[in-house]
Here is the input.
Amino acid sequence: MAKRVLLGAAAVLLAIAAAYAAFFVAPEERTMGVLQRIFYFHVSCAWAGLTAFSVGFLGNLLYVWKRGEKYDWLGVSCAEVGVVFTTVVLISGPIWAKPAWGIYWTWDARLTSTFILWLLYISYLLLRTLIEEPDRRALLSALFGIFAFIDVPIVFGAIRWWRTQHPAPVIMGGPNSGLAPGMRGTFFFAVFAMHILMWFLIVERYSLEKMRNDVELLRQEAEAT
Amino acid sequence: MKNLDSVFWAYMLGWAIFFGFYLSIAKRSNDLRAEVERLKKSALGNSRGK
Here is the structure.
């Protein structure tokens, strides 16, 4: 419990520090001005969301292989946290796009694949509510989670493979990409802060799922007596 | 400061979503704790009845 409180405090403090760095430490970008400061929040949330889905994918694979319930708890925790981060991305993106592009939304490769990713994991979470038998629910949702993860590399590659509305990548984008040194430090600090927040939320969500399982066992015992 | 309102809303809505999610976890945990208490009481009642 104390470790979880410490992790939560670290997540909040790091997030505040990352916001401070985005506003007061990073240099102002020449063409977009203050608007570009959304970048540090938007992209770091996107990376944290993709990391959550990747860890959840590992949980799904391990469940199919070993059938341990803790892998099912990890899968659902990561899916829910990934959906939350992707929701933030899908809201902060259009807020940035309207003044930058003149439109809130367009069906370009990156935006569409991210929206499909969000829909896939919402479907994963809905699927779990439809199946009552725990082992069947865990197996079917793990298989669906493995299928849903196919979209993660497509989201990552969309701005590398197809040149549409969304800007080209500034990190891992080839020889002509990159960030100014002052921006790079702030960006990676924001990515680190969002990953600590993601980790904290997964730990909290995992312990909730574990508690739900304990309650279910207690309920079965109560019914048996 | 042109577009500062957009930056404000992007950060504020994002943080509101994270905070709302954390609150939903806390609420679901509290509901489960209450359920554990209820089950313990009912188990205790059953054992006394026997």
About this structure: The helical segments of chain A are 2-25, 38-66, 69-101, 109-130, 134-148, 151-161, 181-224. Residues 38-217 of chain A form one domain. The CA atoms of residues 75 and 154 of chain A lie 20 Å apart.
